[in-house]
Amino acid sequence: MYSPIQDIRGKVIFLTPLDWGLGHASRCVPIIETLSAQNTVVLGLSDTLCGYYESHFPHIQKIKWPSYGIRYSKRLPLFITLLLQFPKALCVAKKEHALLKEVIRQYQVNIVISDSRFGCYSKIIPSVLITHQLHIKVPVFSFLANTVNRFFVNRFSEVWVPDYKQLNLRLAGQLADASNLNIPVKYVGPQSALQKFANAPSEKKHLVLILLSGVEPQRSLLEQKLLKAMKNSEKNVVLVRGSEKPLANLPKGVVVYNYSYAEDLATLISQAEHVVCRSGYSTLMDLHVLQKTNITLIPTPGQSEQMYLAKHWQKHFGAKLCLQKDAEELKV
Q1: CATH code of the domain made up of 4-191
Q2: How many other CB atoms are there within 10 angstroms of residue 175's CB atom?
Q3: Average pLDDT over the chain, rounded to whole?
Q4: In terms of pTM, does the model score above 0.85?
Q5: What is the location of CATH 3.40.50.2000 in the chain?
Q6: How many Cα atoms occupy the beta-carbon half-sphere of 52 within 13 Å?
Q7: Distance, CA of 96 to CA of 90 (rounded, Å)
Q8: How far, in Å, CA of 248 to CA of 56, rounded?
Q9: Nearest 5 degrees, angle CA 199-CA 204-CA 210?
Q10: b or e along 27-39 (b: 16 or more beta carbons within 10 Å of the residue's beta carbon)?
């Protein structure tokens, strides 16, 4: 599939991903690999992403970048939690916008690429926003949410959507619909850090792979429910936790990895008979490029985007949908 990313050559590029879990970071990996082959890339990273990118790109220049510090709530829906943290996010966006001016001057940057960081736009050089959310799905205040989203998106020079342009192939469904924007929208295809391993030979094994991710406390809440569900499983179970927190009461026969990246993660996914995971968009792109179809998706409670994606994949890609409150009874 053709992508405008391939046409950029001989530039100095500043790229910075949102530090909300590893999803935004992982989908930028193939973009950075393509860009760094013909350009000079400088990465702006919060502390939580430094280790991840150091393992992938040890020779690329990295500078410290502010964290949005988004947190979930155990009880409040995500859109309310985000609304309450909106003033804080605005302050961070203003801070990074001011820092960006100095970075452009110091490194002689020609292009800015931001994955979901709305403060990283420029009025003097081209600035690209990477997002799959051009149409926000929230249960209330939908018109207001989309008006605000369009306002911030339109500050950029263009948008790269990590999805297919064809409606019948869209992984993000209506979320990736471009409407009422004043800037060009380019569909660059699914972006996964695992796509380079898509054709690697791998023997399928009869195992259940549980992939956990996301911000606490919901990650831990789901982990405990799924471990209870796996106590009576007759299948081999592998759990990739996405955390280094201590883990107690581990059922017999469950193999645990705190983290798994790159080829190791691709091998685990390829070998799995059944994958159980969140319906975060970056995870879905990973599963798509590795051609996994036997999937159970468990949306993060209160996150309407993940609920929409789980239902979209249930309808169009054959995935199963399980609510977190029912995860303890999950049969695989």
Answers
A1: 3.40.50.2000
A2: 21
A3: 90
A4: yes
A5: 4-191, 196-329
A6: 24
A7: 10
A8: 31
A9: 100
A10: bbbbbbbbbbeeb
Distance CA 57, CA 36 (A): 10
Rounded Cα gap, residues 165 and 171, in angstroms: 10
Which tens digits make up the pLDDT trace of 250-281?
Answer: 888 899 999 898 899 999 999 999 999 999 99
Q: How far is CA 183 from the centre of its chain?
A: 23
Residue 205 identity: K
Secondary structure, 3-state, the chain: CCCHHHHCCCCEEEEEECCCCCHHHHHHHHHHHHHHCCCEEEEEECHHHHHHHHHHCCCCEEEECCCCCCCCCCCCCHHHHHHHHHHHHHHHHHHHHHHHHHHHHHHCCCEEEEECCCCCCCCCCCEEEECCCCCCCCCCCHHHHHHHHHHHHCCCCEEEECCCCCHHHCCCHHHHCCCCCCCCEEECCCCCCCHHHCCCCCCCCCEEEEECCCCCCHHHHHHHHHHHHHHHCCCEEEEECCCCCCCCCCCCCEEEECCCCHHHHHHHHHHCCEEEECCCHHHHHHHHHCCCCCEEECCCCCCHHHHHHHHHHHHHCCCEECCHHHHHHCCC
Please calculate the CA angle 202-207-213 and round it to the nearest 5 degrees. 90
Q: Which CATH superfamily is domain 196-329 in?
A: Glycogen Phosphorylase B; (3.40.50.2000)
Residue type, 141: F
Q: What is the pLDDT of residue 70?
A: 67
